[in-house]
Automatic annotation (TrEMBL):
Family annotation (Gene3D superfamilies): 3.30.1240.10, HAD superfamily/HAD-like
GO molecular function: magnesium ion binding; phosphatase activity
A GO cellular component annotation in the UniProt record: cytosol
Name of the featured protein: Haloacid dehalogenase
Organism: Algibacter mikhailovii
Length: 270
C-alpha cells in the first residue's frame, strides 16, 4: 500500500472510527494533528446526523469536513456544501408501511433535529445515542423542516426484518442496510461516494489520492470512489469484497493503524 500520495482521508464513524462503546480514541486525535500538519484533508462520513458527528469530534470540528446522513448533508466550517432532502412524494406511503410494524422504529432526520414517534419511547436511550437532538411526534405532518433521511431501527436484524418491507421504494429513493439494526431511506443521490466526489472536485483531489475506511453497505460508494479503500476486520462480507485492503477491527484501532502508516510514508517521502 503506497500511501505517499494521499491528500484526502475519509472514514465512516460507527463500526469504523468509533469503538463498540461509540468512543473515538485519544490516539486518533493525536494522529489527526499530524494529518493536519501534512495538509491532508479529513472527512468524517457517517449515517449519523451532523450534530452527532461534531459532538464526537468536537475538539477538531473546525478543521474537518462532515458528510452526515450518509452524504446527504456536507458541511465545512459551518457552511453547507451539499444538501439533498427527500422527495416529498411517497413519504406518507412510507410512513403508513412503518406504522404497520411495531418492531420498526423510525427516525426522521433533519439538519438540526431528529424526530421519533411517540411509540418509540421505550427505546429512547438507544435512539438518542445516535440522535441526541430529538423531538417526539405522532406523524410526519408534525415536521416542518426538510427531511434528509428516514432511519429505520430494529433491535434484532434489519437485513431480514426491515429491508424486505421497504425494498419496493427503491424506484424513488435510496434504500440501504446501514448497520445490523438500521435501514436508511434517502434521496437517490444521498450517498457517501457522491459527497466524497464533490469534495474531491472542490480540492482537485483524485481517487488515487484518497484513502477511505468503512464497514457496512452505506460505505460502498465511498470505497469505490477511493483507490485506497480499507475494510475493517469487523466489516460485512460485501465491504470486504469491495475494499482493496483490510485492517484491524474498530475495537483494535484499525483506522489508526493505517493512519500511522500514512503519516510515516508521507514524512519519509518529504
Amino acid at each position: 500500500m503506497n500511501l505517499t500520495g494521499i491528500k484526502l482521508v475519509t472514514t465512516d464513524m460507527d463500526g469504523t472510527l468509533l469503538n463498540s462503546k461509540h468512543e473515538v480514541s485519544t490516539l486518533f486525535f493525536e494522529l489527526f494533528e499530524e494529518l493536519k500538519n501534512l495538509d491532508i484533508i479529513f472527512v468524517a462520513a457517517s449515517g449519523r446526523p451532523y450534530y452527532s458527528i461534531v459532538d464526537k469530534l468536537s475538539t477538531i470540528k473546525g478543521n474537518i469536513i462532515v458528510a452526515a446522513e450518509n452524504g446527504g448533508l456536507v458541511v465545512a466550517n459551518d457552511k453547507t456544501l451539499l444538501s439533498t432532502p427527500l422527495n416529498l412524494e411517497g413519504l406518507k406511503e412510507i410512513e403508513t408501511e412503518i406504522d404497520c410494524h411495531a418492531h420498526i422504529h423510525p427516525v426522521f432526520c433533519t439538519k438540526s433535529k431528529a424526530f421519533f414517534k411517540n411509540s418509540s419511547v421505550a427505546i429512547l436511550p438507544i435512539l438518542s445515542e445516535y440522535y441526541p437532538n430529538y423531538q417526539l411526534i405522532n406523524s410526519i405532518d408534525d415536521i416542518e423542516n426538510e427531511i434528509l433521511k428516514i432511519a429505520l431501527f430494529n433491535n434484532d436484524d434489519a437485513q431480514k426484518l426491515i429491508y424486505p418491507l421497504f425494498e419496493r421504494f427503491k424506484s424513488n429513493y435510496k434504500v440501504i442496510v446501514s448497520g445490523q439494526h438500521w435501514v436508511d431511506i434517502s434521496h437517490e443521490l444521498a450517498n457517501k461516494g457522491h459527497a466524497i466526489k464533490l469534495i474531491q472536485n472542490m480540492y482537485n483531489i483524485t481517487s488515487e489520492e484518497t484513502l477511505a475506511f468503512g464497514d457496512y453497505d452505506n460505505d460502498i460508494e465511498m470505497l469505490l470512489q477511493s483507490k485506497y479503500s480499507v475494510a475493517m476486520k469487523n466489516a460485512n462480507r460485501t465491504i470486504k469484497n469491495i475494499a482493496s485492503f483490510e485492517t484491524k477491527s474498530n475495537n483494535d484501532n484499525g483506522v489508526e493503524l493505517i493512519l500511522e502508516k500514512l503519516i510515516k510514508a508521507r514524512k519519509q517521502f518529504k
